[in-house]
Amino acid sequence: MIDDAGDAVVPAPRRWRLRTIDPFLAVALVAFAIVRLTSVARTTPAVFPDSSGYRSGFRDFTLVSLTGGQPRPWGITAFMALWPGLDSLTFAQAVLGVVAWSFLAVEVWLLLSRTLWRRVAVVLVLLLGLVPAVVGWDAAVLSESLSISTGILSLAALLRAIRRPSGWSIALLVGLSLWFTMTRPLTLIVVLAWGGVALVLAAISPRARVAWLLGAVLLIAEAGYSYAYNQATDNAWVAVSGHSRTTAAYAYNIGFNPVGDDVLVSVRASDAPRCMIPAAQADVARHGTTVWVNKTVAECPQMETWATANWGSWWRRWLVQHPHQAAAIVRSQMSGALATPVYAHVPKVLPTSVQSLFIVGGPVLPARVAKTQSFVVLVPLLWFGAALVLLLLGWRRVGWRSRSAEFALWVTAGASLLSVVVGVLLLQTPPGESGREHAAPRIMLAATGVILVMLGADRLSARGTSDRVVDTSGDAAAAEPTYGEEEGNARATV
User: Fold this and answer.
1) What is d(CA 112, CA 337) in angstroms, rounded to the nearest whole number?
2) Helix (H, G, I), strand (E, B) or coil at 373
3) What's the predicted TM-score (pTM) here?
């Protein structure tokens, strides 16, 4: 087919036609699946004291509540109730991880135009999906594996919806994002940010405006639902632990806070019952925070009443009124929060030289946690600094309406980092626990950094502004299988 200018035009394939699978992509996906599944299959499931709160037995859904009637979110408990044993559960977590990272790799492949950068991007994305800080959670009976996998699934669905905006693709994004919000409390920050992205895309995408607008409303509603759900779990925590989650947060805000003494001064000046205020910060963490909370609640019932009713709002006001102390908390906690620990002994599948592309050694967890190592994903400034430079260098090569993917990825990165910052401000913990609390946003931060660098390099290496680019605003994206195909591939390859 020849256009009016005499240039050859590759017709877009029909939507129903099976596409040819690129051999490199196929081999990479198969190898990734084999390595990840076999590494987890050879590992004994790691069970922790918290594990009983996520699973009570096969097809036992008593821990599942859609309204906050159970301490743990239903996105974890419902999934874990589906499997007959711990071995099948951890293997299922690994399978979900394979699906998530493969989906993301395919979407990144389709987002790029040049074969070189497609291949490099797929390799980097799949390697990130094999680092111990990701695979290690598959063998742990905790929430982190599902939180990471559903976050990556949602990110891939977002890229899919941008590349091929339709009611079905946006519905997929909304559905996966709902699951994501029901894995960890602060994931709602990322989903809320995606709601903002959807609003922007609705404004610039005439043909997909209604779908994006509806998607935005649903994503924002999911974030609100997640917030209300987590607020409602306090009563469930009382039934299980004898005290609310808010009361436990009070103890953590004192015991592991670098400015704990300043907090105690302010608490003593409040109307808090005297019996709930420790004489010194060290008294809280000396024998374990949970032990101190249980003992103090038994001796001082007023602590539970006052803390449940007041501590959350009191603590937020205190942070606003003491910005220097809040900054000190962030500085002291961020190193631990950016460390993604490994709670299960999964065989290392990557040499150290490959791991160093993404992660460096982090703080070692307490010795009482057996067979545990800790890792930190490479400082995000390196990836995002490179992405910003490439974005500026290639800015004129692509119109702003075709930069929806970059916009969404930058927003995702910012929201992921914000969720970590908010998390360390709301709850201070030891380094290992802090890294666990923020495993999903930290991995998503790394993934978005890698994709942005690859996308910037792909844009910059295009031969010129005449290269075909997918209009990700929604007007023309549905007509083109990839953005680019600038090397003249006659086949529409996945």
Assistant:
1) 32
2) strand
3) 0.88
